TrEMBL record:
Record-linked InterPro entries: Ap4A_hydrolase, Calcineurin-like_PHP, Metallo-depent_PP-like
Any Pfam family the entry gives: Metallophos
CDD domains noted in UniProt: MPP_PPP_family
Designated name of the protein: Serine/threonine protein phosphatase
Gene Ontology molecular function terms on file: bis(5'-nucleosyl)-tetraphosphatase (symmetrical) activity; phosphatase activity
GO cellular component, one term: cytoplasm
PANTHER family: METALLOPHOSPHOESTERASE (PTHR42850), ZINC-DEPENDENT ENDOPOLYPHOSPHATASE (PTHR42850:SF4)
Species assigned in the record: Rhizobium leguminosarum
Domain annotation Calcineurin-like phosphoesterase: ranges: 38-235
GO biological process, one term: RNA decapping
Length: 263
């Protein structure tokens, strides 16, 4: 059962339109009220079954809402859980009828791209991400390492087993989505820094001082990246990473008008 609260109502300040980033990943902007309902979730981390169930819940909820609907994914689709390959395949397909879906990039997604393009980083990557993503593509990385396979062999296996289209999908992902006064990013933003000057690395990796200080800009930031057992509410921010790979709970945040809730 969900709950709702009025998180946006008191704000009346107008915000200038976010300009395109001069380099790096794309940043998207829509007017306030462009979508009748917005559904956001983050840090799927290879939990395909939970992702599919969340989409079913969203479709059931949205069936009663006329007008355009949007699903926003806040990054980290790979690692930890068992089915990273299935998650990427699902998200690279068309969204449910009546929905648009924007899939943002998280730090784990960007790191998988780096591994694919530069497999010599395999030991560094394994220390960060673990082998679950490779297992989901049928790669027994422990066996390869124990057999003293060289970097060239490991690189060939990775490139043969992980579809190039999955990597191209991850490379194409935008880094930020803004709808009126609401900002969607993976990790957060650097407090007090103009949105046009935010670095992609901060948007994917930041924790402090953002978690304690909030954005220090006239926006509400919806983010993941920092896991907790339940959604977290800080200064002008809501964190929705509920560690689904450990807890089994994939939180779906909803925005309908000025009402923000948890589905």
């Amino acid at each position: 059962m969900g709950y709702m609260f009025n998180y946006l109502g008191p704000w009346r300040q107008q915000i200038p339109i976010l300009a395109g980033n001069r380099k790096g990943r794309a940043r998207l902007t829509f007017a306030e009220g462009e979508f009748a309902a917005v559904y956001a979730m983050s840090d799927v981390h290879g939990c395909y079954n939970e992702l599919v169930k969340a989409h079913r819940r969203i479709e059931e909820d949205a069936a009663r809402i006329p007008g355009p609907k949007l699903i926003v994914m806040l990054g980290d689709y790979v690692d930890r859980g068992p089915d990273s390959s299935a998650v990427l395949e699902f998200l690279s397909k068309t969204p449910p009828p009546g929905f648009q879906r924007f899939v943002l990039c998280g730090n784990h997604d960007a790191e998988l791209v780096k591994l694919y393009r530069k497999p010599a980083r395999i030991l560094e990557w394994l220390g960060f991400a673990g082998p679950e993503t490779l297992h989901s593509y049928g790669i027994d990385i422990e066996h390869l390492l124990q057999s003293a396979a060289g970097n060239e062999t490991i690189a060939r296996v990775i490139r043969n087993m992980i579809p190039e289209r999955h990597i191209q999908f991850l490379e194409s992902l935008p880094i930020m989505l803004r709808i009126g006064r609401v900002l969607f990013v993976h990790a957060g933003i650097k407090p007090g820094i103009d949105l046009k000057k935010q670095k992609d690395s901060d948007l994917m990796w930041i924790r402090q001082p953002f978690l304690d200080e909030g954005p220090q800009l006239p926006v509400l930031v919806i983010h993941g990246h920092t896991p907790a057992r339940t959604p977290t509410f800080g200064p002008q921010r809501i964190g929705i990473d509920t560690a689904v790979s450990a807890t089994g709970r994939l939180t779906v945040l909803t925005i309908k008008g000025t009402r923000v809730g948890i589905l």
